[in-house]
Please model this.
Amino acid sequence: MSAPGKTSPHAAMSQDVHARPGRSAHAPTGTAKVVRALLRKELLVELRTLESIPGMSLFAVTTFVVFHFALNQDTVSGQEAAGILWVTLLFAAMLGVNRLFVADADQGGFDGFLLAPVDRTALLIAKAIALLAYLLVLELIAVPAFGLLLLGPPLGQALPGLLAPLALGDIGVAAIGTLVAALAVRTRARDLLGPLLALPLLVPIVIGCARASAPLFYATRVGGDGNPPLRWLGTLALYDLVFGLIAYAVFDFLLED
Amino acid sequence: MRRPSLRVLSIATIAAFCVSLSLVFFYAPIEAEEGFLQKIFYLHVPLAIVTLCGFVIGGLCAIAHLRTRDQRWDLRSYVAIHMSLIFGVAVLITGSIWARGSWGHWWVWSEPTLVSFLIIMLLYATYQPLRFAIEDPERQARYASVFAITAGAFVPMNFLAVRLSASYLHPRVLGSSSNLPAPMALTFLVSLAAVALLFATLCTYELAAKRTRILLKARSRILGYQS
Model:
């Protein structure tokens, strides 16, 4: 966190440098504005290079095919279905997590960001939102594919209840994934360390999501009203909150050189 | 200053272990259901408690390191986590033996404490690979501290999540010391003190060794030796 007194002269200077006609030169470089700029850059880079999302989606669909042959089953249901869906989503998310900071580390993105007189937490927030967006697109493809390829009961009946676990799971994966990606990216074995660090941290998310979505995947309802158990949603929300706060607290220390 | 404290700690540890082992084998009553096997409880549970405390202490030292930027706090954090990892392996082995003896399987998924412990060990097993994959010493210390804080906070969260997921198939007769008969509770507390002392002693030894090595390196650099 940068002290406001320390950065204000720099902030004023950079605004002078970047002031363009038609834009207010006196607008403060608030965190929200920085986050928006970073997020825009992140999504633009992804749209132009298409490095993460197609790979993640293809990986998820391929994994469903692998599961079909590995389990030798045409359809799955219940806890088994929830497990396959969440393991696949998690491993596909790992691909995105591994790539999240690679361009910044290799092509000077970190240096450029550190030179700018802005709050460093903005990078965490922007990256987490970008990862969240990747995960949403991944799920837009992977969940229907799962319903088509493997799920026994129709997806339509499970989908409304599935939204809450998916959203809470995504937030948790985005928070933990961003933190872990930043930790691993400047090490020698970053491709190896990223998943090794992230998977144990994500076990509680898998527990919560798989348990919350399992009752939705039975052909006939086994008790309950079609909503995921609130106990698991509460646990997931608490976990997301705690790790969001931890990531917020420690992220600055990863960006100090 | 350092030597007497090491000697005192070592003697205290040996004495505590003599007392605790005699209590375990000659004073504590044989448990009615599990018989002699239950004695492993006096080793396994203290080891587990000390290991988890060591992980959390590592996280607290890491907070101190990030606040003060004093490399000594990073060294303490490293030593606490390193020693906890070694103790943790012993916890998993003794836990496995206990599970085999009382439930007939080397590994029991329905025992939430054991499962959470394994997940925590898997996480901390990446501490050293992460640390030593970073060359710059200052950044190494900083990243290791960030990891130690995150993982330290993960320890209680993980226990909560795994405990929620378990459906208490096995009644946990001796899971906590709250409902123990007095002789067993006394033996347990003495064993806990002995294991905690052992942890402190080994940490002090490792810290002393690490500091000496750092000092030697600095001296030999002054004298111009190539090390």
Remarks:
- The interface with chain A takes residues 66, 119-120, 122-123, 126, 129-130, 133-136, 138-139, 142-143, 145-147, 149-150, 153-154, 157-158, 160-162, 164-165 of chain B (CB under 8 Å).
- Residues 173-177 of chain B have pLDDT under 50 and may be disordered.
